[in-house]
Amino acid sequence: MNTTAVPSATTRVYQHLKRAILEQIHADGALLSEADIAATVGVSRTPVREALLRLQSEGLVALYPKRGALVRPVSAQEIEDVIDARRLVEVHAARRAWQRRAELATALEPWLELMVEARERGDVVALMTADRAFHEAVVDAGGNQLLGELYQRLRDRQMRIGVAAMRVEPERMDRAVADHTELIDTLRGDDPARWRALVERHIGVAAHHLRPAR
Predict the structure, then answer these.
(1) Which of 92, 110, 131, 199 is the most exposed place for a label (fewest CB within 10 A)?
(2) Cα diameter, the chain
(3) What 3-state class would DSSP assign to 202?
């Protein structure tokens, strides 16, 4: 017997819209029509409204009665907040994860392989998805469940910001693969200071590319 739960209409709309926003299919500032969304997903307007309310609570859209939903642009402050939160969580987690470095290096290898494959295809979304999973594994290896949950909340914002930035500079895909390869190689060594320094450098380089030009 198949016990797989069928997603509700609201869930299907929510997942469809969230993916489109995070992957920049719906660009920042786009105005989305309830009628168009309902027709695309094949549902009535009621689950569309419910899904949009959920997305509004997550800060991804702003609702305007009788006009539709505006995809909220990512602000410079939001980018700074994400960078700051990443540094606080990831550097701390990386320090704690060193004790499990051999196990962690093995766990990270499949994500690096997916990044390499995505780079070869020029698939920014797939590369960023694997990239986020790579860093999530490092945070989880730190052993602090609360920080892991906090990092999960950052994941969508990182995905959205990262996809947009990497599409502007697709050559960064090569740098991403090289950086993550170096991180795994360092885990297989015996220099914890170098490991922490690389994690901090990696976040710093990402911050440089994510910040808007000034």
Answers:
(1) 110
(2) 61
(3) helix
Q: Are residues 13 and 92 in the same domain?
A: no
pTM higher than 0.85 for the full model?
no
Cβ atoms 75, 62 nearer than 8 A: no
CA angle 122, 124, 129 (to 5 degrees): 130
In this structure, are 98 and 59 located in the same domain?
no
Contact 209, 169 (CB under 8 A): yes
d(CA 59, CA 78): 11
pLDDT tens, residue by residue, 86-136? 999 999 999 999 999 999 999 999 999 999 999 999 999 999 999 999 999
List phi, psi (to 5°) of 12: -65, -40
Domain that holds residue 26: 9-71
In DSSP notation, 133-198 reads: HHHHHHHHHTT-HHHHHHHHHHHHHHHHHHHHHHHH-TTHHHHHHHHHHHHHHHHTSS-HHHHHHH
